[in-house]
Structure formats: C-alpha cells, structure tokens
Amino acid sequence: MHKIIRSQIALAATLSLAGVLSFAQDGAAIYKAKCAMCHGPSGTPSAGMAKAMGIKAVSDPEMKALTVDQIAATVKNGKAKMKPVAGLSDGDVKSVAAYFKTLK
Prior knowledge:
Strand content: under 5%
Largest sheet: none
Number of domains: 1
Number of strands: 0
CATH topology: Cytochrome Bc1 Complex, Chain D, domain 2
Order of helices and strands: HHHHHH
CATH class: Mainly Alpha
Distance between the termini: 46 Å
Radius of gyration: 17 Å
C-alpha cells in the first residue's frame, strides 16, 4: 500500500515539474514573439527604443519591484506608450509576465 502511495506522489511531483517547465517555455516563446522587439531579447531595450518609448531595462529597480500580477496587467491593458498586447489568453499573459520576472 505504501509503495502505491509513494508511486502516486512521485508521479504527481513529476507532472507538476513538467507543468512548471512548460509554463516557463511558453512564456519565453511568447516573450520572443510579442515583447522582445521593444523590450530586447534579454529584457534590455536598445537605447533608441528606451528613449523613444520610455522603456526601462528589467534590471532597473522600478522594474524589479513589479509583481507578476502588475506585469500581467500592463501586458493586458497597456501603460503609457505601450499598447495592450493582442491575441493572448489570460494564461499566456500570466506565462509571459512570469517569464519577464526571470530576466536579469
């Protein structure tokens, strides 16, 4: 009986880990397709884009302080010169916001 329970726990942990990894990969792919052209592939915009659009690098303390929910709200609703990002489900928005928080 204990062997079955341990097997089920191991399976659940494996599936959870797989879900987390695919979550991050989806966020990375979405970021590359929808965000990197303005925010830069690593979260640091080009000097011209930063100046024209007022974009700060992810390393900026103000950007580091943002929560995933705050980033998601900006992706969904836009902010200042940034327009809302079209064509994303709520799950996609959360994925890309979580990925953005991993950038250094």
